[in-house]
Automatic annotation (TrEMBL):
Species name: Streptomyces himalayensis subsp. aureolus
SUPFAM superfamilies for this protein: Acyl-CoA dehydrogenase C-terminal domain-like, Acyl-CoA dehydrogenase NM domain-like
Family assignment from sequence similarity: Belongs to the acyl-CoA dehydrogenase family.
Official protein name in the record: Acyl-CoA dehydrogenase family protein
Cofactor(s) essential for the protein: FAD
Molecular function, one GO term: acyl-CoA dehydrogenase activity
InterPro entries, per database record: Acyl-CoA_Oxase/DH_mid-dom_sf (IPR046373), AcylCo_DH-like_C (IPR036250), AcylCo_DH/oxidase_C (IPR009075), AcylCoA_DH/ox_N (IPR013786), AcylCoA_DH/ox_N_sf (IPR037069), AcylCoA_DH/oxidase_NM_dom_sf (IPR009100)
Length: 332
């Protein structure tokens, strides 16, 4: 596998970066949090740009480029959940323009003479409270149902821009046509790699803002960026981000190539992203002198997005354990 973007991918990266800078500036992100602005127009923009059409597994790297840039911008739309959790489980062509979410556990399906009945509560469903459709993973298969059939209650989380909800299915009836043949395990690989790239993008934003700060902040009649201790922390942040980024794109490449290593690669990506955010969060706050946690500083949004990502779909410790188990089982 090649670990460098080809010319088309570099052009795609530049195009996406320019579009995100224009359509999702920090002012818009703050208006969503402070003023309750509706991110729906931004979601429609992504649809218009064709970014919701990146559903073919062979386009995983191109999707990853979008996810990294949206993570850097702290995107307030349901793009992450729709494209990396819902889309891999839904039938192609059945949800164009709609947002979606995935319930990976907590729901059971039983069959009767009239079809299927869904019962249970899926907890911590990303965008479960604002999705148009839900992909529900059960032991009997994956069911795609309209969101209004379930009851969603949004829960308070560290990142005020993320929507996380508990979704309850109380005797929801669905037909056999709603049951798909998607492989939940393969879908989870994309969910992990996509979340890892989102975290990497947020960490990159933290580093960019930190470098801007240390290049202008003066202490003891000198720029603090000239201090060796500050430089060492900035370098550590950069190295951690590049390591996590490389592993995340490797995971995307294994998905695109249908490589059997994708399960291990996805866990490696999520573990590296979790370790990265821990270091970048700590150093970012320290180099800002704790000013980065104040409400007036936009750094807080990237800090919260990176930290919240660690808490979704398993943290670094959990995925390191999975990696160790996998390596032990295959005598690597």
């Amino acid at each position: 596998m090649l670990f460098e973007f080809d010319p088309d991918q570099r052009l795609w990266q530049d195009t996406v970066r320019d579009a995100v800078a224009k359509e999702c500036p920090p002012a818009l992100v703050r208006s969503v949090v402070d003023g309750g602005a509706d991110p729906a127009p931004l979601w429609r923009t992504y649809n218009g740009l064709g970014w919701t059409e990146l559903t073919d597994p062979t386009e995983a790297v191109e999707l990853g480029i979008v996810l990294e840039e949206l993570g850097r911008a702290v995107d307030p739309t349901p793009y992450l959940a729709t494209m990396t959790q819902f889309a891999p489980l839904a039938r192609a062509g059945t949800w164009a323009g709609q947002s979606g979410a995935a319930a990976f556990g907590g729901v059971n399906a039983r069959q009767d003479q009239e079809g299927w009945v869904l019962e249970g509560t899926a907890r911590h469903v990303l965008d479960g409270d604002r999705a148009d459709s839900l992909a529900v993973v059960t032991g009997e298969g994956v069911f795609v149902v309209p969101a209004e059939e379930a009851t969603a209650v949004r829960t308070s989380v560290f990142d005020p821009l993320l929507h996380v909800a508990d979704v309850t299915f109380a005797g929801v009836r669905v037909t056999d046509d709603a049951r798909g043949t998607a492989d939940p395990e393969r879908g989870r690989h994309l969910a992990l790699a996509g979340l890892a790239l989102t975290m990497v993008g947020a960490c990159r934003r933290i580093l960019d803002l930190t470098l801007e700060h240390v290049r202008t902040r003066r202490q003891f009649d000198a720029l603090i960026g000239s201090f060796q201790a500050v430089q060492h922390k900035a370098v550590d942040m950069h190295v951690a981000i590049e390591r996590a980024r490389a592993l995340a794109y490797f995971a995307m490449m294994t998905i695109a190539a249908d490589d059997p290593r994708r399960r291990l690669a996805a866990s490696m990506a999520k573990a590296a992203a979790g370790e990265c955010q821990a270091l970048v969060f700590r150093h970012g706050v320290q180099l800002f002198g704790a000013m980065g946690t104040t409400w007036e500083n936009d750094l807080q949004f990237a800090l919260k997005r990176a930290k919240a990502g660690e808490l979704l779909l398993g943290g670094a410790a959990e995925h390191r354990a999975l990696i160790a188990e996998e390596c032990h089982a295959t005598d690597l």
